Amino acid sequence: MEGYDNKDGYGKKNRDEIFSNAIRAGKRTYFFDVKATRKNDYYLTITESKKRYDKEGNYSFEKHKVFLYKEDFDKFSEGLLEALDFIKSSNKEANEVEELFVTEEQNTNSELIEGLEAEAYSNVEFEDLSE
User: Fold this and answer.
1) pTM for this structure?
2) Is 129 part of a structural domain of the chain?
């Protein structure tokens, strides 16, 4: 009976986990795991894992999980793509405004420097150099 318990747990785990992908992103790791229900329907778990340290320097992992079932795949992916598109377009607009500001600032600085250089050089007289 002793070996039976271990084999039973092993078989269940093998059946449940269909696919797994770990993505390391800075201090976080994201796990995308496809699992199966008893009726062999697939669902997705998304886990965020962060390493946390206590005052003594010991660490533990803080995990947050989202379960996504097949009836929600379409709405979830639409919402995710919409949010990502918004972020990309907002960042693009912000970058364009920033580039425009930096370009105008550079032009203003260039004009200022050219004006100072022209003023500095235009006041130089050769008689002043001979002293």
Assistant:
1) 0.56
2) no
CATH number at residue 78: 3.10.450.700
Task: Assign residue 50 a region (left: φ > 0; alpha: ψ between -120 and 50; beta: otherwise).
Answer: beta
20 part of a folded domain: yes
How many domains does the structure of the chain reveal? 1
Mind listing the pLDDT tens digit of every residue in the chain (131 residues)?
444 444 444 445 545 689 999 999 988 999 999 999 988 899 999 999 998 999 999 999 999 999 999 999 999 999 999 999 999 988 877 777 667 666 666 665 566 556 555 554 455 555 555 55
| CA 29/CA 64 separation, integer angstroms | 11
C-beta of residue 40 within 8 angstroms of C-beta of residue 48 = no
- Determine the 3-state secondary structure of 89 from DSSP: helix
Is 30 part of a structural domain of the chain? yes
**Structural domain for 68, as ranges:** 2-123
